[in-house]
Amino acid sequence: MPDLRTEAIVLSRVKYQESDRILTLLTPEGRFSAIARGVRKERSKLAGSIEPFTVSDVVLHFKSQNTDSGSLAILTSATMLKFYQNIITDLDTLTIASNFLKAINRLTNDADSKDFFQLLQNALSALNTAEKYQIPLIETHFYLNLAFISGEMINLATDSNGARLTLDGSYNWHSFDRCFVLATDGAGEFNADTIKILRLMTSMPIASILKIKDIHTHLNALNIILRTLREMF
What we know:
The model is unreliable at about 65-70 (pLDDT under 50). The protein is an alpha+beta fold and about 230 residues long. A hairpin with a 4-residue loop joins strand 6 and strand 7 (about 180). It has helices spanning about 90-105, 115-130, 135-150, 190-200, 205-210, 220-230, and strands spanning about 5-15, 20-25, 30-35, 55-60, 75-85, 170-175, 180. The protein is elongated. It has 6 helices and 7 strands, in the order βββββαααββααα.
């Protein structure tokens, strides 16, 4: 395989030998493991570009027979494009962003990561500038789309009886079956507007979702869905 130049986000990194790191990189082309030689040395030119919560322009060299690093690619160049520095200044936001990386790392494979890359990049960008009340919205958007990309079932079309969700219906959420249950007393936690927002989340980027007027009024209901989504990943 020839050298690959692409954008990358570091999903994980571990120390290797005296001055190297082994990286797991998410790119639009897939997930790759790579060795960054000498990156822990004081004057390394690569070090600043492979920090967590950065998007970097990288060049990966692939060598079919490499006794030092096995099947690892070799990181030969890295230039930071974006650094979401605000994420690391708040412990709660840092924890959420770290969980995003872990969830993506568990799900992605080497074959198809384009949607994963865009989802993660947009989520980190949104977290970097988010107000406190927006963070659960970003989480819900991220995990909801992660569920759809990875083939997990979240039913936003019909209720537990298979009937289509209606505009005048009132519903509760059944976390085990991941579907809505009609509230016969009309006092359900979800109405048509909240369900519409969930549907929009699967088709619109998070930056657009955050601009929806009065979206904060749906936070209590969305947090119920968010608890289910967190448990899934």
